[in-house]
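Reopening this ticket.

The earlier resolution said the output was attached, but the attachment link was broken on my side. Pasting everything inline this time so it's all in one place.
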Amino acid sequence: MFRKSDRYITRQVFATALYAVLILSVVLVLGNLFKEINELLVERGAPISFLGIFILKLLPVSLVFTIPWGFLAAVLLVFGRLSSDQEINSLRGAGQSLYRIASPVLLLGFALSLLCLWLNATVSPRSKGELKMMLYETFKEDPMRLLDPGVVQSRMKGLRLYIEARNPDDSLIGFHAYEIDPDDPNAPPLGYSYAEHVAPLSPDKEAQQVELKLSGVWSERYDKDRGALPALAGKIEPWILPLEAARSRRLKPNSLDNGEIGELLANPPEGFTREKLDEFDAERVRRISFSMAPLSLAFIGIPLGLAARRKETSSGAGMSLAVAVAYFLFFTIAEESQGASLVITKTLFWLPNLACLALGIFLFRRATKRA
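Inline output:
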C-alpha cells in the first residue's frame, strides 16, 4: 500500500525525470536533425515539410535512450537532495528500511522499462521503416529529386551519380554515373559513364523507373587484368534509372519489430543463412535487454544518490553521465561481438543488467550498514 512518503518520493522522481527526458530528447533529436539535414534536403531533395515528420518519427527512437538516462539523473538528484536534507534519516527513524523507501522508485523504474520495451520492440522499428517508405514515396511522385545537381547521390544501390548543372527545362548537363559493387561499396568502381546532355523522359511509376535520354556519351568498363576498356556511344535512349534502387530491399534486423522478427525466425526466407538468422535473433534479445535499463540503473542510482550529500546537482549530473556511458558501452561491445557465438552475444547483452543488479545490491547493503 502506498504511503504518503511513497507518493512524495515518486512524484519528485517522476517530475524530475520528465524534465530531464524532455531536455535530453530535444538535444538528441536536434542533433540527429542537424546531422541528417544535409542529406535529407540537399542530397535526397526532400521537401521542407518532411522535416516535421522526420522529427515526429525520430522521437520514439530517441526516447529509448533518453528515458533511461533521464530517469537515472532524476534518481541521483532526488535521492541526493533527500539525503542532504536529512529526509532519508527521518524516514529511517520512522521505521522504514532503505529497501522500503526505494521500492516505489524501483516500481516506477519497472513501469518505465515496460514503456521502453514497447518503444524499442515495436514503435521505434516501425518509425524507422515508415520514414524510409515516406521518403521513397516522395521520390516516386517527383523522381527528378534524385538528380539534383551539385551533390553526389549515393543512396542508389550499385550507383553513384553526380550532375553538374540543370537547365530550366529539367534537362541535365554533365552527367556522371559510377557503377559500384553493391556488396562492397568501398571497392573500386566497376564502370563509369559520362554524358554531356541528359533529357528526362516520362517516368514509369508503375515500373518504378525513370527513363533518360543521354547524348554525347562516353563510357568505360574496368577490368582488373586489362584495365579500362573504353566505349564511345554518341547517344543512349533510354538509359534506365530504377526508382526501386532508392529503397533498400534487403531485410535488416533494425527494420523489423520484434513480432516480425519472431515470424521471420519461425519461417526463414529462402537463402537466409544461420549467421543471418542469428543477427535477427540477437537484435530481438538486445531490444529486450536494453529496455530494462531504467530498472537496472535505478538499482545503482539510489545508493549513489544517497552518497551525494553535497553539491547534489553537479555530482548527480556527473555520476549519471558516467554510469550511463558505462552502461551503453557494454551494449556497444556486445554489438561488436555479433560475429562470435550467438550464446556469447546474448550473454553480453544481458551482462550490463546483471552487473547493475549485483552492484546495486552491494551498494544498498553498504548504505544500510552506514545508516
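Reporter confirms the inline version is readable. DSSP finds nine helices and six strands in the chain. The radius of gyration is 27 Å.
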